[in-house]
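1st attempt posting a full record on here, be nice pls
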Amino acid sequence: MSIVSVKENIGIPKYKQIVTSIEDAINNGDLRKGDQLPSINYLRDKHVLSRDTVLAAFNELKMRGIVHSIVGKGYYVSTSSADTIQKIFLLFDELNSFKEDLYNAFLNNLGAKIQVDIFFHHFNYDVFRKLIHDNHGNYNYYVIMPSNLKNASLAIGTLPEDKVCILDQTNPQLSQYTALYQNFEKDIYNNLAKGLLLIKKYDKLVLVFNDKQPQGMLDGFNMFIDNYGISGEVIHSLQNRLLANGEIYIVPDDKTLLRIIKKIKKEQLLLGKDIGIISYNDTLLKEIVEEGITTISTDFNSMGERLAQLIINKEEIQIENPSDLILRKSL
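the predicted structure (as tokens):
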């Protein structure tokens, strides 16, 4: 019994005929999970094909998770059903509550036959590069959150351009790729401008900024204080910082938010009166804690939904996810 059938002049590329033959053989039970496929050379010779044609078929099956290869041995069936699957490589910097919202919205809006494998680089370029290198060729699509890693474009550049989507942060070196991103410079500038009347009730605006934060956030902050004549300061952490009555703190990460609330209580200051807080990335907790924390935030649920649509529809586009200022009692 021949597993693979290849016919001439039927209007279907021969590599696709190989793919369909192997899919049918798996679904019919002629091939089972763990079975070895005929070799590339065998199919090449039997059907008078080029080696590249057979390899293209095997690579498609491999990217979809239907088969896997063992170096020096060949290709083996990985699944009991070939009705799956597109495989998506999703590389986040870290997982937190708002990125979990993004992730869940993304999963909930994908088709049932799409598999998503999630990885984390934790702002470490070597980990970032290795994850991309080790998973090259194993997925149909690569969704990558490069954060502000230097040379991220070098690692991403090893992947097929049409199979990559840049998520959350982008830069000019990644301009050729599909992207769904935040414009951090514009977002902080415009949203601080929305709160200008409240900000002017305080004496100083302080940005807590570290090397994990987007450079655009710092640029937009500096542009805002310059253009509006606001007294401003950039600090790297709250360590050894004494809070002063009349300051507003912009805190991009949640650990810093908790630390500054603790400091406010310890120094017997009043949040929203003596000290103002603007946090980044809205969560349910920020609606509740201390009667509400003002945030600058994009809609992560919307971002996840739009990301799913982008991949399903195979769009090649760059989309700026909008951001807004959510005013609460901390300002």
